[in-house]
Structures are given as structure tokens and as C-alpha cells.
Design brief:
about 425 residues; alpha/beta; six-stranded mixed β-sheet; four-stranded parallel β-sheet; 15 helices; binds pyridoxal-5'-phosphate; binds zinc ion
């Protein structure tokens, strides 16, 4: 078992397992190839269930060996039935996959853990990435844990909290003047000149496979069963494509019964190249210039955009979008109905979930999983708009009763019965 090579996703040309990412014939992206011949499904399932409480329980299906010294135990995050949010949206069997609960508070820990395990195997000493924010947090933390030097490249002017969440691990943080797409182009040039492990450039075939674990885990947590419909946020599009691939691998290995899963995508209206192409019936994605509060999804030229369109259309899903206002509103809705505080990417997912439910794209009895991929303290500016303000009072019972119980809530206070003793 295990990874046996890389293959071009466009022309199929085979390559050795190596830190390369583009086909030398057609420039298509490379993808990991495994040999799963003769795998015993029951034995594999038992191995997974007895494995580490992290993404590495799926090591048989990942393209790098488990490396505990470089690992922060990403994964195995909660899958919660969301009854109250479901009621608000008219969905009876809704689940939230809360992937904000990772070591650096976003799903990026999954892809970075796999990429850096591969990087160490290839002998790299420097970790790097082109990031919209969360990836930089994760690369900086995992590099610190592994004792690697780190350079993280982000567009200038990101949320303060995201910059601090990288800087604390002591990488070199490079703020590049321009959009993420400019950062990405620069990093591809640097990766050609220096032997650094750019997790999402030269190590992309390994990085990208880490996202399959968000498909594996949901199936395992549903009792080795596939859901009916999932809603996934889109930046580069990798996560969505790999969740679908994860479901497909489990079915072809016989770990779950094969059944159709509809895959829907979510984008902010201020960076909606895939949603636009979906609506226009196009098979390709035209780049846009991002202008949205959902900075972690602000990729105007998504590398996997056209594969997202293929997956979504073949599955019978849709790609929806949400305005900044709807994103802020959805952050508040998720928090007050389910007690989960997400960043703007999660707000985008919940806002699009709501819209797809309203439009009937998602049916009321489907088993639906919405992927919440990052935590709210990363984008406090957006959350402040959705949060209720506090009430400030002098420290007296009378002030509490008049200012809080009577004024603020508007009702007559119900006094507690006095305690009778003796
Ligand atoms: C990066 C990111 C995504 C989407 O990732 P892609 O694989 O690039 O589509 C979703 N949510 C959050 C919070 C992210 O940081
Ligand atoms: Zn090719």
C-alpha cells in the first residue's frame, strides 16, 4: 500500500514520488497515485479505528509517513448535529464539522501536517508558503514544532489577528504588496530559485491530499456512512475537490457503501470566480480581483477552479455566494444557535447553506454536513458587527434591576423566592 508515484491530472504522464508539482509535458498539476491492490477493507478499517486521534489514523491513504516529531495532532475535530441551526434553516438532519478546533484553529493544519511530513522525508530544512492568512499560521507553527526555518508570504494588510498568529511562532513573515495571486506568483519564482519546501507550491501534490481527511473523518463519524450533501468553502478549490476524492476512495476501498453525495461550494460575493462560472455554465474560471471581508477565501484565480466545477456539476450540487453582510449575519446565527464562533470563511459557508436551503437546492431531509473551517477570533473585526453590545452598570443590585432586567430586556424582573430557614 501507500503512495507509489505522481501523475499529471491533465495528460496522465507518470512521475516518481518527488517534490515536483507541474507536468513537464503540459504544465498540468500532479497528483499522488497509490497502490491499494489487495487491501482488506475490514483490516484497514480496524487499523484506522485503532490509529492516532489525528489525521494520521488515515496514514495508509496519505502520501507521506506519520512523523510524530513534526506533528501537532491536526484532525479528528467534532462533527456535531446542529438541531437549532437546522430548525432555523428548515433542515432536519444538519451537521456542523467544526474544523476550527485544530492546533492553529483552521483546517489548514491538515494539509500542512502532510506537506511537512513529506518535506522532511525529502530532506528540506526550510518551510514556506503563499498564504491568505491561515496557511501562514499553520506553516509557522508546524515548522516551529519540527525545528525547521520558516518563511511565510501573505498579502499586506491582512487582519491583525492573523498576522500575530503567524509571528508568534517566529517565522520570517513577508507582507507582499498586492493580492494573494501576486503573492502566489512571487512564491512560484522563489521556489524555482531556492530549495525550500513551499507547502502549496512545490509540495502541492502532498499538501492537497491532506484535505481528503475532511472527507474520511465525516464518513467515519457518521458510522462509516456517506452524507447526502456537503457544503464546502472555496478558496483555491482544493478542499472541495479532495473531500469528494476522500468519499470516492472510501467507497472504492469498500469502507463505506457507495452512494451519491452532492457537493456544493461557497464563495464570498466579493471573490466569486467559481460561483460566476457555475452560473454561466462555463467549464473554466475567469479570474476576478478580490474585495471581501472573507480574506481567507480571497483567491481571485483559484488553481482548482475548473476541477471544482466538474465535481459540483457531476454530483448535482451548486456553487453559491454570500455578500459581506450575509457573511457577518451568518457568523452571528451560527454562534447564537449552536455555540460555535467561526471566522468569515465559516460565515460564508453558513450563509450559502442558508441560501441553498431556501432555494430548495438542499432538501429538508438530506443528511447535510456544513464545513466550518476556521475560528472567529481570527477575524474579530467582522465578529464585532455581529455581536450584541454589553451593558455597563454600577455595582449595585438596584442598577442591575433597572438597567439590565427592566430596561435592557424590557420585561418585569421575576424575583427569586426568598429563602425560608429554621
Ligand atoms: C484555505 C481555507 C479554505 C479553503 O481552502 P482551499 O483548499 O484553498 O479551497 C477554507 N476555509 C478556510 C478557513 C481556509 O483558511
Ligand atoms: Zn501533463
Amino acid at each position: 500500500m501507500g503512495v507509489v508515484g505522481l501523475r499529471c491530472r491533465e495528460c496522465g504522464k507518470a512521475f516518481a514520488v518527488s517534490p515536483s508539482y507541474a507536468c513537464d509535458e503540459c504544465l498540468g498539476p500532479l497528483e499522488a497515485v497509490y497502490d491499494h491492490a489487495g487491501v482488506d477493507a475490514a483490516a484497514l478499517k480496524a487499523r484506522i479505528e485503532a490509529g492516532p486521534r489525528s489525521i494520521w489514523r488515515y496514514a495508509d491513504l496519505l502520501p507521506a509517513p506519520y512523523d510524530p516529531d513534526a506533528d501537532l495532532q491536526a484532525g479528528l475535530t467534532p462533527l456535531l448535529p446542529a438541531r437549532r441551526l437546522g430548525e432555523a434553516l428548515g433542515l432536519r438532519r444538519l451537521y456542523i464539522k467544526n474544523d476550527a478546533l485544530n492546533p492553529t484553529w483552521s483546517f489548514k493544519d491538515r494539509v500542512v501536517s502532510v506537506a511537512l511530513a513529506a518535506a522532511r522525508r525529502f530532506g528540506f530544512e526550510v518551510a514556506a508558503c503563499a498564504s491568505t492568512g491561515n496557511l501562514a499560521n499553520s506553516v509557522a507553527a508546524h515548522a516551529a514544532r519540527a525545528g525547521m526555518e520558516a518563511y511565510v508570504f501573505i498579502p499586506a494588510g491582512l487582519e491583525r489577528a492573523k498576522v500575530v498568529n503567524s509571528a508568534i511562532y517566529h517565522p520570517t513573515v513577508v507582507e507582499v504588496e498586492g493580492t494573494y495571486d501576486d503573492v502566489n506568483r512571487l512564491c512560484a519564482q522563489i521556489a524555482d530559485e531556492y530549495r525550500w519546501a513551499f507547502v502549496n507550491v512545490n509540495l502541492r501534490p502532498f499538501y492537497s491530499e491532506g484535505a481528503k481527511t475532511l472527507g474520511f473523518e465525516v464518513a467515519e463519524q457518521l458510522g462509516w456512512r456517506l452524507p447526502d450533501h456537503v457544503v464546502v468553502p472555496i478558496a483555491s478549490g482544493n478542499l472541495l475537490v479532495k473531500i469528494a476524492k476522500g468519499f470516492e476512495e472510501l467507497a472504492s476501498l469498500g469502507l463505506v457503501e457507495r452512494r451519491p453525495v452532492r457537493i456544493s461550494g461557497a464563495q464570498p460575493a466579493g471573490c466569486n470566480p467559481v460561483a460566476r462560472a457555475y452560473r454561466a455554465g462555463q467549464a473554466w474560471v475567469d479570474p476576478v480581483r478580490p474585495q471581501t471581508i472573507a480574506r481567507s477565501l480571497a483567491i481571485g484565480n483559484p488553481a482548482d477552479g475548473k476541477y471544482v466545477l466538474d465535481v459540483v456539476r457531476a454530483s448535482g450540487g451548486a456553487v453559491g455566494e454570500a455578500t459581506d453582510e450575509e457573511i457577518v449575519d451568518a457568523i452571528g446565527l451560527l454562534a447564537r444557535t449552536e455555540g460555535i464562533f467561526t471566522e468569515t470563511a465559516g460565515g460564508t459557508t453558513i450563509a450559502v447553506l442558508r441560501r441553498l436551503a431556501q432555494e430548495g437546492v438542499i432538501g429538508p431531509d438530506e443528511v447535510v454536513v456544513a464545513y466550518v473551517t476556521g475560528m472567529g477570533l481570527k477575524t474579530p473585526e467582522a465578529a464585532e458587527e455581529a455581536a450584541v453590545s454589553s451593558v455597563r452598570i454600577p455595582a449595585s443590585l438596584r442598577a442591575f434591576e433597572t438597567a439590565v432586567l427592566a430596561d435592557h430586556r424590557g420585561g418585569t424582573p421575576q424575583r427569586a423566592p426568598s429563602v425560608v430557614t429554621g
